[in-house]
Amino acid sequence: MLRLAGCILAVAGCAGFAWNICADGARRLVLLKKMRGIYETMKYYISYQKATIPETLRRLAEREGEPFGAAFAEIDERVCEKGEAFPAAWQSCMKMVLEGLPLTKEEKKLIMDFPCSLGFMEENAQAGALDEPLREISLHIEEIEKEHKSKNKMIMSLGVAAGVLISILLL
Amino acid sequence: MTKREEIIRIFPEYMKSRWEQALLQVDKLQEIRLGVGQPVRLITAGEERFLSGKGNLGRDWQDAWYMTERDMEEILKNICRYSMYAFENEIRQGFLTVSGGHRIGMAGQVVLNENGMIRNMTHIRFMNIRISHEVIGAADAVMPFLYKENRFLNTLLVSPPGCGKTTLLRDIIRQVSEGNIYGTGRQVGVVDERSEIAGSFMGIPQNHVGFRTDVLDGSPKVQGMMLLMRSMAPAVVAVDEVGGEEDLRALYQILQSGSSVVATMHGDSMEDVQSHMRHAGILFQRYLFLQKQKGICQIREMYDEDQKRIAGMWGEGKCSA
Predict the structure, then answer these.
(1) What are the residues facing B236 on neighbouring strands?
(2) A59: domain range?
(3) Are residues B147 and B262 in the same domain?
(4) Is A121 in Cβ contact with B88 (below 8 Å)?
(5) How many CB atoms lie within 10 A of CB A100?
(6) Is residue B37 classed as helix, strand or coil in its secondary structure?
(7) Residue A139: which region, alpha, beta or left (left: phi > 0; alpha: psi -120 to 50)?
(8) A119: which chain B residues are within 8 Å (Cβ-Cβ)?
(9) Would you state the pLDDT for residue B312?
(10) Is residue A126 part of a domain?
C-alpha cells in the first residue's frame, strides 16, 4: 500500500514539475506580449504626444499592473523628483523586477538595454528606434506560440514518464 | 529643492561630485560656461573662475577641467531626461529652461530646412547655463504708481538689454496676480515666448508668477496673445519684448477688449518708445525706464500717459516723486 502511494506521489510530483515548466512558458508568453504592448504604447506617446520617457513611464505605470507598473512609477520618481540619471534608474529598477520573471537571458537583456535606444533628436526617429526591440520581442512571441502546444505536450509526457521511471526504480 | 541641488541636477551622475564643491556659493553664481575642448568657467559676481577636475575653483585656466564631446552629450541627455525629441523646439531656438527656471543656451551645428530656416541644431558643443535669480519684491517701489482706483494701468517697461526689465515684469505679474494693497488680485495671462518670465519647465512655471496667472509657454507673441484672449479671459496680459508692428497691433486688440497690458520694450528714451508706437496708436498709462549703474539695475524714471515725468527713482528701491 505504501509503495503504491509512493509511486503515485512520484508520478504526481514529476507531472507537477512538468506542469510548472509549462506554466512558466505560458507566463513568459504573457509577459512578452505585455512588453510588446508597452513598447507600442511608448511609441505612440513619443511620436504623437512628444512625451518624455519618464512621462511616458508615469502614464504607463497608471495603466499597467504587476510586474512593471510599480517599477515604472519608481523610475519616473527617481528621475523627475530625485534627479537620478535615467539609465541608472532604469537598470536598477528593472533588474529587480526581472529577477523573478520566467524570461530568458536574451529577453531580459532586451529590456535592460532599453536606454541604449534613446537619444534621438526627432520624435519619429526616436519612436522608430523602438522598432528594433519590438521586432525582437515579436519574434520571440512567434517562436513561443509556434512551439507552445507541442512543447507543452512533450514536457508533460516527459514529466509523467520520469515519474513512472522513478516509481519502477523504487519498486 | 535648493538652488544648488537644481544646478547639480543638470549634470550626469558621474560629474556631480565635481560640482558639489564648486557650487557652494551658488547665490552669487551668474553663469556656467561649457564648451568642448574648453575649460569649464563659472562667472560669480562678475568674476571668472575655472573649475578643476577635482572640483576646485581657481583663476588658472591651465589647471581647469576641459570638457569632452562625451561630457557635453551626457549633459544634454541628462537635461532632456534622455528625451531630446521632446525638447526639439527649444533646442532649435537655442535654449531650454530647466527645473528652477535656469536657462541653458546652446550652440552647435545648425541644420537648415529648404526655406533656409533653422530646422534643428546638432553637435551641440557649447552651453551657457544662466542661473535664475528671482527678485521677489523688485516691483515694490513702483506698484503704488501702477494702479488707479483699483484698476491696473497699462504699463510699459523700457530699457536696453540687461537692465532688469524681465525681473521687474515678473514681480509686477506676481503682485498683480496675487493682489496687494493697491488693487485686488487679477487673472493674468502671460505670453512667455522665450520662457524667460515664468521659466517654465514642461509647462510648469518655475518662478513665482502668482496663483492667478496662466502661462502660455514658448508661443509666438502675437498668436499667444490672441489665444489667451480667446481662451483664458485674462484681466491683464503680460508680454516680454514687444516691438514689431504685429506685436503692437495685437496689443491694440487686447486694449480694445478691455484688458490691461504690461509689457517690456528695448529702448532708452521716450523717443525710442514713440518711434515704435507711432503707427500703432497705443497709449500706455505708465512708462518705466530702467538703467544699470555700477552693476545695479535701477528704475531711472517714470512717465504717465501724457508723457509727463511722475517719478524718478535712484538706487535700489528708492523713489522720489
Answers:
(1) B188, B260
(2) 25-170
(3) yes
(4) yes
(5) 8
(6) coil
(7) alpha
(8) 77, 82, 84
(9) 64
(10) yes
pTM over 0.90: no
% residues pLDDT > 90 (chain A): 9
Reported as a single tens digit per residue, the pLDDT across B34-48 is 999 999 999 987 789
Same domain? B157 vs B232: yes
The per-residue pLDDT for range A122-157, each reduced to its tens digit, is: 788 888 888 888 899 899 888 888 877 777 777 777
3-state secondary structure of B91: helix
Q: Examine the domain organization and report whether B284 and B165 are in the same domain.
A: yes
Q: Is ipTM strictly over 0.95?
A: no
B36 and B88 both lie in a single domain = yes
Phi, psi of B38 (to 5 degrees): -115, 155
SS3 letters for chain A? CHHHHHHHHHHHHHHHHHHHHHHHHHHHHHHHHHHHHHHHHHHHHHHHHCCCHHHHHHHHHHHCCCCCHHHHHHHHHHHHCCCCCHHHHHHHHHHHHHHCCCCCHHHHHHHHCHHHHCCCCCHHHHHHHCHHHHHHHHHHHHHHHHHHHHHHHHHHHHHHHHHHHHHHHHC
CB atoms within 10 A of CB B65: 18
Q: Is residue B320 part of a domain?
A: no
Q: Do A120 and B85 touch (CB under 8 A)?
A: yes
Cβ partners under 8 Å of residue A81, min gap 6? none
Cell of A88: 541608472
- CATH number of the domain that residue B212 is part of: 3.40.50.300
Average pLDDT by stretches of 10, chain A with 171 residues? 81 80 78 90 89 90 84 89 83 89 87 84 83 89 80 77 81 73
Structurally, chain A folds into a number of domains equal to 1
The answer on B117 and B44 residing in a single domain is: yes
Contact A54 B9 (CB under 8 A): no
- Residue-number span of the structural domain to which B101 is assigned: 3-130
In chain B, residues with a C-beta closer than 8 Å to the C-beta of A80 are 81
Which residues from B are below 8 Å from A84, CB to CB?
13
